[in-house]
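Reopening this one. Same input as before:
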Amino acid sequence: MSIILPDNLPAIATLSMEGIDVMDVSSSHKMELPVLRIGLINLMPTKTDTETQFARVLAASRYPVELTLIVPDSYQPRTTPEAYLDRFYQRWSAVINTSFDGLIITGAPVEHLRFEDVAYWNELQDIMHWARRHVPTTHYICWAAQAALWSFRSIPKHRLPEKKFGVYPHRKVDPMHPLMVGVDPTMAVPVSRHTETRRTELPLDGSVRVLADSPEAGLCLLDDPANRATYMFNHVEYDTHTLDAEYQRDKHAGRLTAVPANYYSCDNPDYMPFNSWAENGRRLMTNWVSQCAIRRRDFACDLAA
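Same output, byte for byte:
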């Protein structure tokens, strides 16, 4: 189905070359089907890559999606020109009265900091608590998933002895959950993080459901209906070369980063990486978009009651 993006966003040309049906906002009035409005709060340093990755997986759904790019008012970019944000992004205060059908909040390269030491932490907390009242479902990714669990449920993150980095097999823990429909019983998932959330610290009452996990990489995907939230600690949206780019970046910066596990042929970075996660990643994200559509209807009924 179609993905609607801000006018002239670089991702439009990239996705069009891949054969994906892309429209810009100015042309979206031609759509005859109802459009799902999804907000992407993009805290990643590689803005254009992240925009393209999420647009690609969202476009695989059976619903047309309009993607609004957002950053907090207090967010100051280090790797993205202000002019780029001014052209393609909305500051949070400009969209707070928008009716979103779903919200995605990405990770951020701030794992080494306490949550309270992140410059935009107070505003992000306000956004997360606003979302659980006003958005049918919000998908938190990597650091944002840990941030939401800390804000909603006081569940901490823990530093790992070394970076968990690579593509790890994950098992489908809750096969009947709507997000897991059509996902293989064992799925490969890219992992890139220095911290973890521990299963032993989840609520004992089952109010946070584990949907997928890994013996090697730990928790992967959780559902928290009370907070209208799902938590993905890893990166099914990554494209084939994302982990390679991270590895090369760290290597050239002199950081001691291990070769990403189960990623290159023969685990040799001189060989091309193999994408073993794309199909299951698309299924999971298209399931989430379907839940946005279902929960939009239920959410509207709840508000009218």
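So the earlier flakiness isn't reproducible anymore. For the record, The chain is about 30% helix and 25% strand.
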